[in-house]
Amino acid sequence: MPEVPAPSTRLMSNPAALVPHIPLPRLELLSDARTRGAECVWGGERLTVETAIDLGKHTDNGFSWFPRACLRCTRSAVRTARDTHPDRCTECPGPTSLCDTRRALHDLLLELLR
């Protein structure tokens, strides 16, 4: 059986481009461990190199932070972003059609479900 790569290496080639479409918790509500990426930004689970999904560097009011997440929470956040995207998108022709961003969110979710 082939070895399954860690979630952080299994992601699409450029998941960081989708992060602006995936709402993160407000920075001022997060613990130091969550802003450093030691814990899941959503659920608070302790993360390791093998379990963490890197959500890229963020800068808010001059403060740089590095959120990471567990696979379960990332799946949930991407699913929610994909499902609510048409409500905020002027390019989506309808709830059953996919603009480029919604298609990329859908593809990322499929990748995360593997």
Automatic annotation (TrEMBL):
This is Uncharacterized protein. It comes from the Bacteria.
